[in-house]
Amino acid sequence: MSGKNKTVADIVAVCQEMFEDLQFNYARKWKAAKPGRKVIGFLPVYSPLEMIHAAGCLPLGIFGGGDQMEVIHGDAYYQSYICRIPRSTIELGVTGRLDFVDGMIFPFVCDVIRNLSGMWKLTFPNVWSKFFDTPQNYIPSIGGTYYEQELKELKEGLENLTGRKITDEDIKASIRLYNENRRLVREVYAFRAKEPWKAPTSEVYLLMRAGLMMDVAEHNQMLLDYLAAAKAEDRPKRDNVRIAIYGSFCEQPPLNLIKSIEMAGCYVVEDDYALNNRFLMVDVPTDGDPLAALSNTYIENSVETSCKYVPDGKVKGEYHVAQVKACGAEGVIYATPSFCDPALLDRPMICGKLSAEGIPYIAFKYAENSGQMQPIREQAGTFADSIKLWS
Amino acid sequence: MSKPEAVKEPSMDMQKAMIARNYEAITSKHETGRKVSSTFVPGNLNELLMCFDIVNNLPEINAIQAGMRKASGGYIMEAEKSGHSEDVCTYVKADIGQMSKGNIAPNGKPYPNPDVLMLSYTGCYTFMKWFELLREEYKCPTLMLHVPYEGDGHSTQNMRDYIVKQLKEVVIPGLEQVSGVKFDIDRLRQYLAASAKAEDNLVWCLEQGKKKPSPIDAYFGGVYYIGPIFTAFRGTEDAVTYYEMLRKEVQSRIDNHQGPLTPEGTYFNDQKYRLVVEGPPNWTNFREFWKMFYDEGAIVVASSYTKVGGLYDKGFRHDPANPLESLADYCLGCYTNRNLPTRVDLLADYVNEYEADGLLINSIKSCNSFSAGQLMIMKEVERRTGKPGAFIETDLVDPRYFSAANVKNRLESYFQMIEQKRRGGGSAKSAA
């Protein structure tokens, strides 16, 4: 896919194809290209992809089934009051769409994804699966030590699966590639915040989603190509308001929802969609012990999101306020999946902090297969108008 | 017309008096100078709190109390009016809504603000957010104890070390600071020894569900049996005495071939169906819900809810010889901290060991920790045991989600299914 003179449309078309492909043909082809290759699926919100990459495997982001897949079997596994992502993920599994996946990582998000890890063990006993419980204690000598050991256990699990040892050098090489990926992702986000008319979120989102399904080196090239192409393209600047979106870190909205917000007069200049590639906010050091480096970076420099405990109540939500200010957003749309405990329990606290800082916000719920966009467009449009008129 | 007063056994009266004394201790903190903590049932560190003379207040139990007194519905709506989602845990909303309605304890006195939020985060994600929300309200210290989930079906040395380290370096120094009392590990050992004694008797009582007729109801009765150990009394001499008394009552029923006492004062001897129940009960219509079972001759012989604050029947006991490690093992082993395959194993074992007719799941709308995956649990347990399963849906303390007619219909259908299975199988006999 890499190459010069790629247009934005070319790049976005590739990303959109991957985004819509629920047979995961890219990953299937990657696996088939060399004997012995393995693919490891991972769910939101954060997994250390460097470990999967260092094991010689392809990390494959599983974000449910979106709005293009009819869930038939998955609904038989869940009550009506459970969010949509686990049922469409089960649907992907039981319909054979993930039959080439050799392992699954279920990171800590909430009790639903946690329990899904056990359901996977019961349903697919021959697939290696791991519930990956990151620390909620952020003291390096306590939570950091625990996390380092969890990383060791993850490494051993991957070694058993692949039959090959993972050396420190393997991990460091992967960290370097992912550091580069994070730098480029940050660069795309910064470019979008600066000139959002040149990098609409409906494109940036696809670019990021595709990146979580492909080889990282290839994605790094794609990010460079996109930046070059987007900067070169002449697109009209509209009289839109600048908004940040929070609450969407796990189950993803349909692409049409993002487009609807944009069409309603909003430039999305900050978001928490598909957060894995921005979860660590700085480069992971590549000198010294790589597991300690991954652990320390997680403990000291990872984003604030609803699945993480905030030890100091006084700073709860300050991360969001700082991000809003840094990217020049004029308001926040707190958009959460229905029945999402983390986002909905956090909502009063985060929105309370925004209010205290004089940042306007609206809140609504969605599902990954929400179909009616008119109410979203009206809400977002009214919000945008109110910011223009009154802020 | 008001309902007749429920008929109670002496152990129930004793427990009621213990609870009343605890509420008195909580609400009189300004007079006595005692410190009060808020904490949760799973991963409850009662013995540790006792080492610092801290009174233990449990918001889950307060929400249950509000549910049983029919007050929770109003509290929940109050919380929803103030921006809390209709989708989230109703214990949380009952607690938060209660604050805006004066925060009155069951003894009629206002709850004082806690001095510390002991966030023992075990088996339920919502606990973390609940105390983040309360922390904004109370502005008091919050001590977080993160208990990792047993995702692979067992605990590891790393998990245990992590918990012990948090106890030593975060929780104990924090409680010392709040209380002004120096930690004495021998005092903890003494309380843990008392816990183990009470736990022995609790397990003995719960295991009598294997008898026919069962002298206990392990769900509706079970919530009384677990009360002291799961709440503010584990480690106390009162709890030791309570479980000795409970054991004698159960033994007396065994001697007399009696079932448990129903709230109407009759012994439930005509037991037609023996059930294992998964999930918490509904609290807003507790007696009505219970009556649906004994009216149809259904006795609960084992339940998972009686394991939510500790899985003692699989051998765990608090161990005075290894006090902090024992608290870590306790937290790790609570029911909702076990992965789904382990929960399936446990429930299938109960169906077999307690010679039950099947597994009934009471799925709670606002409790994802329990509920996510329960349909698969039901299918798996059915497959392994060959016994029919059934599924009903209610909520913890939100009366809007208790539909008596629906629940009753489903239960009646289930009992018919069991009858059919018996006839079809040809070998099953009446349970009693």
Stretches of chain A where pLDDT falls below 50 for ≥5 residues? Answer: none
Mean pLDDT of chain B: 95
> Helical stretch count of chain A?
14
CATH classification, class level of the domain at 24-183 in chain B: Alpha Beta
Q: Let me know the average pLDDT of chain A.
A: 97
Helix content of chain A: 40-55%
Name the CATH class of chain A. Answer: Alpha Beta
Oligomer: heterodimer
**Domains counted in the coordinates of chain A: how many?**
1
Which strand order does the major sheet of chain A show?
Answer: 2-1-3-4
Kindly report the CATH topology of the domain at 24-183 in chain B: Rossmann fold
* DSSP summary, beta strand count of chain B: 8
The CATH level-2 architecture of the domain at 24-183 in chain B is identified as 3-Layer(aba) Sandwich
Structural class based on helices, strands and sheet pairing of chain A: alpha/beta
Radius of gyration of chain B: 21 Å
Query: Main beta sheet of chain A: strand number and arrangement?
Result: 4 strands, parallel
Number of strands of chain A: 8
SS element count, helices of chain B:
18
Give helix % range of chain B.
40-55%
What would the principal axes of the Cα set say about the shape of chain A? globular
Task: Identify the notable features of this structure and list them briefly.
heterodimer; A: about 400 residues; alpha/beta; Rossmann fold; B: about 425 residues; four-stranded parallel sheet; 18 helices; disordered C terminus
Q: Can you tell me about this structure?
A:
The complex is a heterodimer of chains A (391) and B (432). The model of chain A has no long low-confidence stretch (mean pLDDT 97). Chain A starts with 7 loop residues before the first helix and ends with a helix. With 391 residues, chain A is an alpha/beta fold. In chain A, helix 1 crosses helix 8. In chain A, 49% of the residues lie in helices and 11% in strands. In chain A, 55% of the residues are buried. Chain A has a single domain, classed as 3-Layer(aba) Sandwich (Rossmann fold), CATH 3.40.50. Chain A is globular, with a radius of gyration of 20 Å. A four-stranded parallel β-sheet of chain A has the order 2-1-3-4, sandwiched between helices. Chain A has a four-stranded parallel β-sheet with strand order 6-5-7-8. In chain B, the strands form two sheets. A four-stranded parallel β-sheet of chain B has the order 2-1-3-4, with helices on both faces. In chain B, helix 3 (46-50) links the parallel strand 1 and strand 2 (55-57). Chain B is globular. Classes of the chains: A alpha/beta (391), B alpha/beta (432). The interface between A and B is large, with 58 and 55 residues. Chain A: Keywords: Iron, Iron-sulfur, Metal-binding. Chain A: It holds the Pfam family HGD-D. Chain A: This is Benzoyl-CoA reductase subunit C. Chain A: Belongs to the FldB/FldC dehydratase alpha/beta subunit family.
